[in-house]
Amino acid sequence: MMRAPVVMAVAAMTMLALPAAAQRSVVAFTTGSIVEQRVRLDGEVERVAGPLWGAGATVAMSDWLSVRGRVASGTLSARTAGADGRSMAEGEIAVTLVPDRWVAVDVGAVVRTMETSIASQRWIELRTGVELGADIIDGALRGTVQLTIAPSVSVSGQPAPDLALGGGTGLEYTNGRLLAGLRYSFDRYDFPGNDAARRLEQRSTLMARVGWRIR
To answer: Could you tell me the pTM of the whole model?
Structure first.
């Protein structure tokens, strides 16, 4: 179940081995998240939620280009009658372009696996997004707003969604080598079907991140 996320993480971490001259900075970080997933089908809502713990690294090649990799895993417990608890693992890798200090563009991929007592499911998303940011305290505290779209989503065992959109907001704190952040994000997936049987999935995440600039 963990194979694809681990492969993505290894690929991201190899960026740490690039020659120092090609790097501007390397930040290693850990994350802790509370994830809630809701599935609505035939008027019924299934809800699961729980913590995910992860780690990753960001390698900045220059002021305008960086690569980020992260893996995380945890267990989501049933929050409604009839819902199945599940283990969840995900890995992501993304390239970030920063044409100006107030805007950043992400392009990347996310692999996510979920396993219940009776089935397993894999998601593969190609996604892109734009993030707008502004300093609240110059050089120390920054606020951000992000919008994302996933033009390609593959879900094992069911058709791909017609539409996959997301958004989020967050705060980022910097103090010397220490970097910390808190972000709330929301993703929605609309799957094909008639009105009575249309499947909608929503995933909300509150993530805390603590990082250290090691180079």
So the answer is: 0.86
